[in-house]
């Protein structure tokens, strides 16, 4: 496999982008990214099972992403914003070897780390803007 997984979300995280964020748009983005990563991690879990590779961390990630998705969904409903439609699952590539499965696992993991840092920054930014203090 010579190509990257193009179906992963492309997350913009420049200072200019962060300064222009709005709550409703950002929560919708966060929801879409979360759902996309759930699809990717679920697909990866299946790929790993096919090669008898360990997949327990994938199950944990799916559970955390599902929890985050539910929280965002609730937040969107509270601000009376329509929950965006689920991202369409583009066809995932055929994974011919265990090595390719491992490479894709690293790629998804790295992008998931970027997503986690981005989402944390977005949520902290909104908390500061709202004047909420830590509990």
Automatic annotation (TrEMBL):
Coiled coil: none annotated. One of its GO terms (cellular component) is cytoplasm. InterPro entries: 4_helix_cytokine-like_core, IL-11. It comes from the Eukaryota. GO terms for biological process: positive regulation of cell population proliferation; positive regulation of MAPK cascade. One of its GO terms (molecular function) is cytokine activity. This is Ciliary neurotrophic factor.
